[in-house]
Design a protein that fits this description.
Layout lengths: L1 H10 L27 E7 L3 E3 L6 E17 L4 E14 L4 E4 L14 H12 L5 H12 L5 H15 L1
Parallel strand pairs: 1-4
Antiparallel strand pairs: 2-3, 3-4, 4-5
The protein binds zinc ion.
Length: 164
């Protein structure tokens, strides 16, 4: 990028100071597989019994499932974070229905990303006015979460409509 090169030249002359330009270590890496490996973090939302959302009856756990969520990573170690959330599925013996433990505080249903990733991406676009590609790069460079720019666009368009 032109702006980065300009900053590099301005810093120049071998001076090492707090404003020295240092490229992100992952800059230029083209394949996702070559990026730093994610740190896996286990979370449990598995319970022996949960109240049925329809009738309130305490329903026993039927089985457990695992959901993988991309979360904000850490620049301390430069690695992304992936949450592996084990959650329980229950069966209400009265209503004969199956239901899962609510994870909506963590992520939207069917989403592969935590809510805080989506919220940050939307803020970058709506508040800071970043183009989708720039927001995608920012999310990786400063928060170590890889979000394709088209996904950032989808979230921003959905979020923009909601707030109106
Ligand atoms: Zn029930």
């Amino acid at each position: 990028m032109a702006t980065k090169k300009a900053t590099k030249k301005a810093a120049g002359s071998g001076a090492y100071g707090p404003g020295e330009y240092v490229a992100d270590v992952t800059e230029g890496i083209a394949r996702v597989e070559d990026l730093p490996a994610p740190r896996h973090i286990k979370r449990s939302r598995s319970y022996p019994k949960r109240p049925c959302p329809r009738c309130g009856h305490l329903a026993y756990r039927n089985r457990t499932c695992t959901r993988k969520l991309h979360d904000l990573g850490s620049l301390a170690d430069g690695r992304p974070r992936e949450l592996f959330v084990t959650y329980s599925q229950h069966r209400c013996s009265r209503c004969k229905i199956f239901f899962n433990v609510d994870l909506s505080d963590l992520a939207d249903p069917n989403s592969h990303y935590t809510r805080r990733v989506v919220a940050l991406a939307v803020r970058l676009v709506i508040e800071d006015g970043l183009p989708y590609r720039a927001a995608s790069w920012h999310l990786w460079r400063d928060h170590r979460v890889f979000v394709p720019f088209a996904t950032v666009q989808n979230w921003s368009e959905a979020g923009g409509k909601k707030s109106r």
